[in-house]
Amino acid sequence: MVDQLSWKVGGQQGEGIEKPGDLFATALNRLGYYLYGYRHFSSRIKGGHTNNKIRVSTRPVRALSDDLDILVAFDQETIDLNAKELRKGGVILADARWNPRLPDGIENVRLIAVPFTAIAQEIGSALMKNMVAVGATVGLMDLPVEPFQEVVTELWGRKGTAVVEKNMQAIARGAEFVRQELGGPLEEFKLAPADGKKRLFMIGNEAIALGALTAGARFMAAYPITPASEIMEYLIKVLPKFGGTVIQTEDEIAAVTMAIGANYGGVRAFTASAGPGISLMTEAIGLAGMTETPVVIVDTQRGGPSTGLPTKQEHSDLNAAIYSTHGEIPKIVLAPSTVEECFYDMVEAFNLAEEYQVPVIVLTDLALALGKQTVEPLDYDRVEIRRGKYLGDTELPPRERLDLFKRYELTPDGISPRPIPGQKYGIHHVTGVEHNEVGRPSEGAANRKAQMDKRLRKLAHFRMKEPLRVYAPHAQPDVLFVGINSTEGVIREAIERLEREGVKANHIQIRQLHPFPADDVRPYVDAAEQVIVVEQNATAQLAHLIRLHVGAREKIHSILKYDGNPFLPKEITEQAKGLLKAKELI
Amino acid sequence: MVDQLSWKVGGQQGEGIEKPGDLFATALNRLGYYLYGYRHFSSRIKGGHTNNKIRVSTRPVRALSDDLDILVAFDQETIDLNAKELRKGGVILADARWNPRLPDGIENVRLIAVPFTAIAQEIGSALMKNMVAVGATVGLMDLPVEPFQEVVTELWGRKGTAVVEKNMQAIARGAEFVRQELGGPLEEFKLAPADGKKRLFMIGNEAIALGALTAGARFMAAYPITPASEIMEYLIKVLPKFGGTVIQTEDEIAAVTMAIGANYGGVRAFTASAGPGISLMTEAIGLAGMTETPVVIVDTQRGGPSTGLPTKQEHSDLNAAIYSTHGEIPKIVLAPSTVEECFYDMVEAFNLAEEYQVPVIVLTDLALALGKQTVEPLDYDRVEIRRGKYLGDTELPPRERLDLFKRYELTPDGISPRPIPGQKYGIHHVTGVEHNEVGRPSEGAANRKAQMDKRLRKLAHFRMKEPLRVYAPHAQPDVLFVGINSTEGVIREAIERLEREGVKANHIQIRQLHPFPADDVRPYVDAAEQVIVVEQNATAQLAHLIRLHVGAREKIHSILKYDGNPFLPKEITEQAKGLLKAKELI
Amino acid sequence: MDVKVSFKDFRNDVPPNWCPGCGDFAVLAAMQRAFANLGLRPEQVAVVSGIGCSGRISGYIHTYGFHGTHGRALALAQGLKIANRDLVVVAAGGDGDGYAIGLNHTIHAIRRNMDITYLVMDNQIYGLTKGQTSPRSAMGFQTKSTPKGSIEAPLSPLMMALAAGGTFVAQGFSSDVNQLVSIIEAGIKHRGFAFINVFSPCVTFNKVNTYDWFRERVVPVETIEGYDPHDRKLAMQKLMETDGMLTGIIYQDPDSVAYEDRIPGFRKEPLVRQPLKPSREDFEALVAEFV
Amino acid sequence: MDVKVSFKDFRNDVPPNWCPGCGDFAVLAAMQRAFANLGLRPEQVAVVSGIGCSGRISGYIHTYGFHGTHGRALALAQGLKIANRDLVVVAAGGDGDGYAIGLNHTIHAIRRNMDITYLVMDNQIYGLTKGQTSPRSAMGFQTKSTPKGSIEAPLSPLMMALAAGGTFVAQGFSSDVNQLVSIIEAGIKHRGFAFINVFSPCVTFNKVNTYDWFRERVVPVETIEGYDPHDRKLAMQKLMETDGMLTGIIYQDPDSVAYEDRIPGFRKEPLVRQPLKPSREDFEALVAEFV
Ligand SMILES: Cc1ncc(C[n+]2csc(CCOP(=O)(O)OP(=O)(O)O)c2C)c(N)n1
Ligand SMILES: Cc1ncc(C[n+]2csc(CCOP(=O)(O)OP(=O)(O)O)c2C)c(N)n1
Ligand code: SF4
Ligand code: SF4
Ligand SMILES: [Mg+2]
Ligand SMILES: [Mg+2]
């Protein structure tokens, strides 16, 4: 019996290999296991290798495993590309049809040729080979078949019971074949029982979208792009039930600008994109900052620069998120680390956008955006709506006809009351040009300085409730790990291993990236002997932010990766060991 | 006799008040005086106060003076707004027609009501009141009339000698009137003789344009915007003589992308804009970086954010220039401090763009872009064309049909040979997607890392010839001033005053802003007791760059201004004194 | 409505910084009169404008106003309309704003057909940046950026609007304020996107396309016998024949359905008045999909 | 030319990653054949493409190729053409690329009329991003982004091109490669901007606008009696009558003058071959203006 296991299914893109992975994972999730998935795919529709790697565990997991226990292969290429990842004793389940073989140099791995296609055809259609493959896994892992019944029924129920039956038959036949092949169950593939609790199973993009909806966002304007499109696609499905809508715009400039227009109108609205689209929004972000119009912008980071690696993992938009747009505006940048945080941080993003009347950028990354994982129940009661000085629901006191509302009133906290169009006594003007308190263009030096100071004052002492996600068991650790976005799980896993070797390690994830929470970060940096910043980019953007805002240049080191693939625990462990050895800390 | 003097002419926008200022300054420039001008204007066509402040000196000047000696007023508003700037004993020359008067509280200033309009009408047309006003100045300063003859002839010669005559008559009559009014010349308005040398008199935008042309730029694509438009307007006039052309595009995205296309085709091409347009170029800059296509982009900074203060002075695009665009690309950012540097740095920008095959951003500011100043002769022989690994003029050796040229060859310095379309054996592919050595899309991890490293390697040790403009007479100064763009002259002037009070001050201007020349800056920072960074923005962008790259956070202070007006020497002197006093350095 | 509204209710105390004689004054006046004629109250209207001399209009009228970025007025306007469909949303800007940098939004807004009225103050030049060519400048037209004359074909905005599926396509002229008022009124009443190009001369930089120049050339549709503004093909044909100089309501689709009325699930009650946080039941139903 | 060129000279060794049956294969083949028929050599041609399934085309043809950013192929192509007017510059991309994000450049490139040929591979959907609506999708068309059907009017690219002053406006269909080859050839020979929309079905995501669907609807201009491709008004009229389904060369201005030939001072010798540094005399003359 094992308490965790790593499974991968691979084949040609566009051949529906998402299905078996989803089915397998959903069933296990319902049994109470924790799952963490990552899809490897390319920027093309049909053809080209794709795979889905899923980790299953009795405990929470938020990282891929270094190796693989089971590989389900729909073509020889899958074996050729992935066999080296298998642990000693790992198993390949491959379709017997194309005579699968082990590549040269791969040893200590068992290849079981299962007649995926043949069995499927016998049952009625070659298309069901996917189900046979799932069945083969079921057999290998000695799983019960019942949880699959439920999922299969949901998937094909509306096509009639016969179809459900056949699919279940395919699973059963696949399982049976492998069971016979093995002779009896293998302990090393048998998972310890899970707690049976029902948890959610979703991708970050769904959590982002659900967070937006729950925060009251009723309008999204967006232009399709990988890996952000699912946010818009989810909302297209559910928003109409809440009276809201999504517009697929002509480009990202229109998308963000429409979102700004809707926020000006009093509706929580947002957009989502990835690098190229975010770059196109640069000018509009300045408009939101200058006009103090709330707006939320999600950047699901992918491999850059330019079109770059559209389907790969990276965190190279940190600087752009913080510094992009000419001139100087107050802006908030958040960076959730987990799918749960995607949900809660989106809610917070809408609150902060309205409370501070600024653009809020939420950075995620491809692994977080598209990786499907087990998520603890989302807490409805934790969702709180705060609109700050929004006056849209207020009956404003009467005023003289031309006595315009002071939309940009110079207040001590820099935030001004905000009526919305349609309100009887709220008339004012809004402009991206420097303006006076009622929003009329004004270039006077004193007014300029006052308005600029007012805008920048809004975030001068900004700190969100929990700017860091903290794991800090040690008062004086050998090393502090600092991470962002989906590196959370893999850093934690590396830490577990390092701790086993006697290293004392603390860990913070930066949730509030800008304004940089220097006062929160500093004590952790000060306490640690060395600091290792883990990020997926080539120029160490996060490490530079720490150097800039916290200092301590000498003890800050970077572990970087920018080949498009997410970190594996061993990569961090090994590099950290090297660094700590050089410092004679191990 | 004085060796410097400050003159200002003001009136309503659109009423041609540029003329008298230009005429006055051109004539004095030809006499060998040094001039420095700044135009105060608004974002509207007709109406609204505008003025042109010009400093004249027998020595080089590159800053406005704190006060004013002579104010020429075409309306009462000009007096009301500017009289307080006049020094004790200063003179206002105003049109008698509207009964000019001194505002309350203004004393020790002399107002001379000159019948600008009446005299002009007598001569033939009220339009010539401008010339009468120039004449009034001539009278006050006791200037010779001859140099004006020359300029007037150039201006109106093609309208016939009668027109020239009349204009000269207007000048003479204005001069005569004032001479009579004064009784005799006033020593305090009489300039010491100049050296009589012929120097250039031009605005930064003209130097930028001329630099581009001299560097071989033959194509500019741009979209009008203040304060960049003059660059394109100058080239529209002169490029046809060199076979080149300017396209006014539909927007800035098209502008920069066309410039990239032309560079890909082997032609030196560029674009210029200000904040809003630069923000729109964000995505394309990434394309240039990723495809390693040279391109030069000029950002004539103005007041931000958003539409901001379109006609005002600021340096708030530093961060955007450095960090804008998603993902990570090699990029060079230059920042000339003087009109001469605008010229030479543009030449260098084109060289660097081709040598390193990267986008080069040249930052100027509104004061530099539009301020007209005396410029030492531009040295043709200093202009050197370096194209790096450009192969466009080479006969390439034959290769097999499908053996594509390695446009992205992994070379030790990261720079690859660059053929251009049309060359027989140079066929290759270019893409903003990650690619292999021949430019075909490739997402492989090893290739990705190799190409990313290659691109970033190009500028890993980059240093332009003179990354700083240095004035460092002291080995251990009390204070190091650091500036950027047009702050050069005003800082130097503040230093002169501080030195008179015993302060030892060094001064560096950052010409190479990115990659930041940390090794060059560090010794100056280390040597100084305190560091004062002078910049026109609200968030101390340059100071942050020094903190990030050089460290020394404790001794770095900022003098900031962001009300839209350029620094005056006294503002820097006073604030610096305050800082140095607090540190007990004076 | 108890008190009668007058166009004065839409005046404010900001003197426009346009040059004396600029065509934009008439557009401003026409808007004010049209709003009054329709009995609107200032707070019911939002004027969203672009950047240019023309773009300043949102600051000169007593309604809600948003002066955005160059070329993006329509994107702001559409977002605003979705947020609050009860508002009368009027977008306005120059020919550079709407046909150069913002042309993409113009065409897509036309396709989308939200209930918005869009006025382009077409002076065939860039005013605010001091006289460069615009996409409306004629071949050979000399400007600061084309001292030897423009070498690009001018756009035909009305034909373009028809080609984009426009449901209300009209053209006015600053000299004929009455006509313009009635066009704007009809545009606001139209159930969909009302596209109105207005010949609004720039007296400072455009010395060719002057009031007189237009006066000699415009062809009001009323002067064309048998003109039927519901006939799209005829509209296109007449536009080609008059080289785009038709004025009046050139085409209107009487069956136009506004975008807001086509959105699945979109309610009559404006979005801005819908509750924010979903009910616990709704939330739980949403979450249940992920188990 | 000593050796005869064949379309094989334009083939490379990259297997396209398009889905089997994708309409884009035919466009690729037609381009290759047209280049060969015109006797071009691979190095004389540059294919500049956008982002999308279609945008990949520049990587599948043996010529110079630039695969740019989404929607900006024409801006790159125009810059390139100015740099080297001797090159045959062909731009290509999808309907999202050219009519959504890139529409502004498309229209302005048409107005400008440089000697470039532009092919839009129009599958009425977004292929690469897996099936969202495009500006060419019909009302009611169901996609990932419009599960209840599109609610925006589809664009009419050919009418739009005519309204923008297009001098060569054509439409092809992936099923009729011969026609497409001859359109492309004519387009390249045309002295100006050749705008070619190609019905290029997406077999994976668009199950409505299939090969058969088009086959039943296209109207080759040759089948229209008395059709005159030099008559712009007739072209517009027929496009309206056939709902844009005309194929062939719909309009060509025989007197078209390319932009390059209108630029003041622009030489026949490509810009890329002009000297860089001005002569000392020229420099001094320039500088003298500032004394
Ligand atoms: C992104 C951007 N680019 C350029 C500008 C500069 N700019 C301001 S108004 C304008 C064009 C003005 O022409 P038009 O839209 O026709 O308006 P008009 O002034 O003629 O009314 C330009 C180019 C800007 N504000 N923003
Ligand atoms: C700025 C930007 N936004 C979005 C994308 C994502 N994207 C890639 S291709 C594409 C559209 C594809 O549709 P189309 O242009 O019709 O080409 P097709 O794939 O159908 O050939 C989109 C939205 C991108 N690459 N860049
Ligand atoms: S410049 Fe032209 S458009 Fe602008 S305000 Fe003056 S007349 Fe009107
Ligand atoms: S998805 Fe459609 S457009 Fe893309 S390659 Fe496949 S068939 Fe062609
Ligand atoms: Mg205009
Ligand atoms: Mg498409």
Automatic annotation (TrEMBL), chains A, B:
Return one Gene Ontology term, BP aspect. Answer: response to oxidative stress
User: Where is the Pyruvate:ferredoxin oxidoreductase core domain positioned along the sequence?
Assistant: 478-572
* Tagged with keyword Oxidoreductase: yes
Listed CDD domains: TPP_PYR_PFOR_IOR-alpha_like
Annotated keywords: Oxidoreductase
Q: Which domain of life is it from?
A: Bacteria
Pyruvate flavodoxin/ferredoxin oxidoreductase pyrimidine binding domain mapped to chain residues = 211-451
Q: Does the keyword Oxidoreductase apply?
A: yes
Annotated ranges, domain Pyruvate/ketoisovalerate oxidoreductase catalytic:
14-176
Q: Which InterPro entries match?
A: 2-oxoacid/accept_OxRdtase_asu (IPR022367), PFOR_II (IPR033412), Pyruvate:ferred/Flavod_OxRd (IPR050722), Pyrv/ketoisovalerate_OxRed_cat (IPR019752), Pyrv_Fd/Flavodoxin_OxRdtase_N (IPR002880), Pyrv_flavodox_OxRed_cen (IPR002869), THDP-binding (IPR029061), Transketo_C/PFOR_II (IPR009014)
Q: What Gene Ontology molecular-function terms does this entry list?
A: oxidoreductase activity, acting on the aldehyde or oxo group of donors
Q: What is this protein called?
A: 2-oxoacid:acceptor oxidoreductase subunit alpha
Q: Which organism is it from?
A: Hydrogenibacillus schlegelii
TrEMBL record, chains C, D:
Cofactor dependence is on: thiamine diphosphate; [4Fe-4S] cluster; Mg(2+)
**CDD domains found in the cross-reference section:** TPP_OGFOR (cd03375)
Where do the Pyruvate ferredoxin oxidoreductase beta subunit C-terminal domain residues begin and end? Answer: 202-267
Give one GO molecular function term.
thiamine pyrophosphate binding
What GO biological process term is on the record, naming one? Answer: cellular respiration
Q: Which InterPro entries does this one have?
A: 2-oxoacid:Fd_oxidoreductase (IPR051457), OFOB (IPR011896), PFO_beta_C (IPR032686), THDP-binding (IPR029061), TPP_enzyme_TPP-bd (IPR011766)
The organism's superkingdom is given as Bacteria
Residue ranges of domain Thiamine pyrophosphate enzyme TPP-binding in the record = 52-198
Q: Does the keyword Iron-sulfur apply?
A: yes
Pfam families xref list: PFO_beta_C (PF12367), TPP_enzyme_C (PF02775)
Per the record's keyword annotation, is Metal-binding included, yes or no? yes
Alphabetical keyword list: Iron, Iron-sulfur, Magnesium, Metal-binding, Oxidoreductase, Thiamine pyrophosphate
Q: Which SUPFAM superfamilies match?
A: Thiamin diphosphate-binding fold (THDP-binding)
**Alphabetized NCBIfam families for the sequence:** PorB_KorB
Return the PANTHER family for the record: 2-OXOGLUTARATE OXIDOREDUCTASE SUBUNIT KORB, 2-OXOGLUTARATE OXIDOREDUCTASE SUBUNIT KORB-RELATED
Report the protein name in the record. Answer: 2-oxoglutarate oxidoreductase, beta subunit
